[in-house]
Write a structure and sequence with these properties.
The chain is mainly alpha-helical. The chain folds into two domains: 69 residues, Winged helix-like DNA-binding domain superfamily/Winged helix DNA-binding domain (Arc Repressor Mutant, subunit A), CATH 1.10.10.10; 56 residues, no CATH class. Helices cover 55% and strands 5% of the residues. The protein is built from seven helices and two strands. It has a two-stranded antiparallel sheet with strand order 1-2. The radius of gyration is 20 Å and the shape is globular. The C terminus is likely disordered. It binds iron/sulfur cluster. The site of iron/sulfur cluster (SF4) has 9 residues, from α5.
Length: 159
């Protein structure tokens, strides 16, 4: 399960992706718009900046923005930056491999076999999905949801 920090980090990055091409977003505005406690958000943004996901500008007109285009930032990169390896057990991690102290035989351990499948399935989605794709899917879902609302559709036709 994603930590609260990773969830907030993803929300913040998607919000900054929506603001792509515009001026950096102030932390206070981001915190308010996404309902994230400001102090917690500051720590998350700092970590994402150190990991090269975000850039910041100080002074008047300062704030945070994506360090790269939204179609070049993978969701997996954000999750790893804030929560560490995707693997449920360290012996199937590609970035932080470690064995349990009591490990008898990795090749036949049933836990490892199942958890490796789980790790690979999660990585297959998160490492192939960009921030841009997540935003596009969200926008498409929003349009589909509002398009189904008859009141809204009538409103648009009458313009
Ligand atoms: S193979 Fe099994 S016992 Fe060994 S490190 Fe992995 S989960 Fe632990």
């Amino acid at each position: 399960m994603l930590s609260k920090g990773a969830l907030y980090g993803l929300k913040a990055v998607l919000a900054l992706g929506r603001a792509e091409g515009r001026a950096p977003v102030r932390i206070a505005d981001l915190a308010q718009a996404e309902a994230i406690p400001r102090k917690f958000l500051e720590r998350i943004l700092l970590r994402l900046r150190r990991r090269g996901v975000l850039r910041s500008k100080v002074g008047v007109g300062g704030g945070y923005a994506l360090a790269r285009p939204a179609d070049l930032i993978m969701i997996g990169e954000i999750v790893r930056s804030l929560d560490g390896p995707l693997a449920p057990v360290p012996c199937v991690s590609q970035t932080a491999y470690r064995r349990c102290d009591e490990c008898a035989d990795e090749r036949t351990c049933g836990i490892r076999l199942v958890m490796k499948d789980a790790r690979d399935a999660i990585a297959a989605v998160l490492d192939r999905t960009t921030v841009r794709e997540a935003l596009d899917r969200s926008e498409a879902a929003r349009r589909a949801a509002t398009g189904r609302a008859p009141g809204r559709r009538r409103q648009r036709r009458s313009r």
